[in-house]
Amino acid sequence: MQIIPLLAEHWEAVKAIYEEGIATGNATFQLEAPGWAEWDRGHLGHSRLVVLGSGSAGVVIGWAALSPVSGRRVYAGVAEVSVYVAAARRGEGVGIALLRTLITESERNGIWTLQAGIFPENMASVRIHLQCGFREVGRRERIGQMKGVWRDTVLMERRSGVVE
Prior knowledge:
This protein is an alpha+beta fold and 164 residues long.
């Protein structure tokens, strides 16, 4: 496994993995993946990562990135985490490796708080966030609708021990 910066040239593979996550119904409120330009605008320019599988001739098997939580300057060091792993590679430690690297990159770029809104049904995601030092802040009940059904999310956060 090799973790490198996510570039525009990785977009088609990143999008395909994102679409696999969307298809689970438990990864995001999004119902379809955006195009590159929209995705690029919605994520911070730093701390964008892909995992290349070993022996796979550079095949992308996972990705992670950060989104700003607010445009207000006071929240400049707070970011929302996205971590996605190809369906065929889930359960192999790809997600935790990505999240650990994302934490390091975020701190290198002045992020003091990472947060994640996770569907409670996505126990694998909750587990890897806990393993990486996130704590459950609370449950946001009926925070949004997906296909006409109200969904809850578990709000998790991690405060940096490096960035103050």
